[in-house]
Write a structure and sequence with these properties.
CATH superfamily of the largest domain: VC0802-like
Number of domains: 2
Number of strands: 8
């Protein structure tokens, strides 16, 4: 994942990569999330790059009126003292945890009754 200033252009070709890729722009920043190779390829445009994340996909799609899904998953990790980075798409949610916490996250979710499959490792 990476960040840069809000006026930074989206790196040409970033979205042509494979795997989970997302771009967010706000008045404060441009954020890119994707495999390390896809991000570091554009390092000259980026202020900060952080690698070493595992991406878990919440099996969707979910109706917009279904509530508490991310709350339940994040609560289990909060109780295990595992930090998260959450991204939502139209159909589902993705929860990223640091690679060194991936097994602990899986154990915490399973202990809380959730079925877990790793979606993508950085």
């Amino acid at each position: 994942m990476a960040r840069s200033g809000p006026a930074t252009p989206v790196p040409e070709g970033f979205l042509s990569g494979t795997g989970f890729l997302t771009i967010s722009r706000t008045d404060e920043e441009l954020s890119l999330v994707g495999p390390t190779d896809a991000v570091t390829e554009h390092r000259r445009l980026l202020d900060k790059i952080e690698s070493g994340w595992t991406t878990f996909k919440v099996q969707g799609p979910f109706a917009f009126d279904e509530t508490g899904i991310v709350a339940a998953l994040s609560r289990a990790l909060a109780e295990a003292e595992i930090g998260i980075f959450v991204i939502s798409t139209y159909d589902t949610d993705y929860i990223l945890v640091k690679k060194e916490n991936a097994q602990a996250a899986t154990r915490a979710w399973r202990a809380d009754g959730h079925a877990i499959t790793v979606f993508e490792r950085d």
